[in-house]
Amino acid sequence: xxxxxxxxxxxxxxxxxxxxxxxxxPTLVLLYLDLQSVRRQREEINNLSLSNLxxxxxxxxxxLERRASRLAEATLRDPDVFQVLLPADRPITPEVAARIRNxxxxxxxxxxxxQHFFLVQGDAVRFPLVxxxxxxxxxxxxxxxxxxxxxxxxxxxxxxxxxIRLQRPDLAVEGYRRSYELGVPDAWxxxxxxxxxxxxxxxxxPKAAQQAYQTLLAxxxxxxxxxxxxxxxxxxxxxxxxxxxxxxxxxxxRGRWELSAEQVDYFLESFAARERHPQETQETEFLDHLRxxxxxxxxxxxxxxxxxxxxxxxxxxxxxxxxxxYFTPLSSPGGPKVLVGxxxxxxxxxxxxxxxxxxxLGMTQNASIAPGLKQLSAVPEGGAARVAFxxxxxxxxxxxxxxxxxxxxxxxxxxxxxFSGFTVLVLFVLVLGVLLLIRDVxxxxxxxxxxxxxxxxxxxxxxxxxxxxxxxxxxxLHGGDFPExxxxxxxxxxxxxxxxLTHLIERVLDFSRIDRGKKQYPLEVGDxxxxxxxxxxxxxxxxxxxxxxxETDLAPCLPPVRFDPEAVFQAxxxxxxxxxxxxxxxxxxxxRLGSQxxxxxxxxxxxGVGIPAxxxxxxxxxxxxxxxxxxKGGYGLGLxxxxxxxxxxxxxxxxxxxxxxxxxxxxxFPCIKS
Length: 674
Ligand code: ADP
Fold this sequence. Notes:
CATH architecture of one domain: 2-Layer Sandwich
Low-confidence stretches: 1-7, 371-380
Strand order of the largest sheet: 2-1-5-4-3
CATH topology of one domain: Heat Shock Protein 90
Bound molecules: adenosine-5'-diphosphate
Number of strands: 15
């Protein structure tokens, strides 16, 4: 038996593990398979939405190209563009280029797609200027006989001869000064002043030269010399002051002077050589326009005939910069074959035109266009498609991401979470169920064990009184003469032991009836006090003899209650027995019966060992015995029976106790409601 009991926990543990594994493993496998299939479905949906995305992308790209070329065409066909028509044979000087630029800038303001205009004739780029025409010798036509003009010509020519032919700048100073002082056009005066300053410089008059350059800078800074160099720059480099150079550099890159691309490169190098310019002004629209001029010159080639009614697209690249251009012949009957073109304002297309197309196509995707080689920095969860343009923008790709991408990803995540959550919950409930079942089974097994113990314990306890009764009975039967006192004491022993026997059997029978659900309490209406008094009377005598002091306070004339006298007797007896067993040294028992509110209350108190707080609930369970109760007799049934009796009476049992200071049990009977 003992061996079996020892084997049981190990066996049970193994059983438990098998149970749990049988639940957990298949559930986890199912969960895994389901998640896999969810993942596969998601992938398929993604693929599907990606191909949809690609289709939308192709539509969007085509629409963007169509609109860009339509807008470019509208721009190039703007009636004002015709105004920039050039005489084919006339060289384009910076002054002419500046006028063209002004005119084209005004047109450009009406057409946001335009970043720059350009003009091409044959294979030569005419605007913006790539290089300036060959220097014009300073030709002074005597003109209409104006006397200042004639004097200027005479003085200037002579000074020039002295400076250049005779190599005597010192002798030329005077001539240039006098010609400068004459009332002639600014271009002539500026020329004379520049020569004057140069000759002063060469003939060791630095201060005077500086002053002359200052004047040149201030008065004629916007004019050009015969090499098409702005006088401001000529003077600026001579004066060589940091603040001035910084300012001139800024003016240069912002397009104060209309210069050729080559000139600008040259001047920028000069500034760089002097290391006196702010770096941040390098990126300007003017410079970009000139870079376009270089790019056009390097790559602009016409393939096949050009028709006047057509607008052509051409992409160019130079260094890191890409240009998307559109051009068309600027035709006039019998006029020169000049092409006018525009470079697209890419930023505007990227932001504005794309947005318009998306809105007009009713698309909800996130779209962006970016240089084709650039990778998407973060691919959105829902996926992204990249589409190349077909007829224009070869340097770009169109990237599309599902607008609902992240949201659907969130939804999928949520689904997976809910799904897994439910599975885990079901698993948890199953495992909990199994654990509860196992706990129940264990408790049943434990109860069975206790019942078996009860049987053997009770049988053992029956032995003592039976032996005593038999012993004293036989003694009285065969013993002959005993003094009366002794005989009386034998009778008492026999009576007491048979009472104990009855009590024990009664209790076991009660428990067995309750256990089988057969216990019934015949309730009758009456006064509780006599029933309590009889129980106290029967047991009190015995207790007093054992040295207990008993204090009773039974209130008379209490309201009637419905009760089973025998069960109440039994309950009181059980409480008194416990008070005796657990009274320790104090040997005090208090019994009080009274009424409170609508209840009759019976209190049994002792000053004994008390009951720790953690035990107070448990002691009413069947077979429960608080630690430290061993050796005091009993099977943990007394209080269980009392509670059962009180429940059957519609009442309750309360306990106040303090470990080491005693306990007070209160049986509460409800009064009959009148
Ligand atoms: P038992 O047969 O062990 O007395 P009971 O059901 O009557 O069984 O009591 C359950 C437990 O409650 C006891 O083992 C004891 O530890 C505790 N108990 C009951 N009455 C008292 C009391 N008056 N003072 C201290 N402990 C008590």
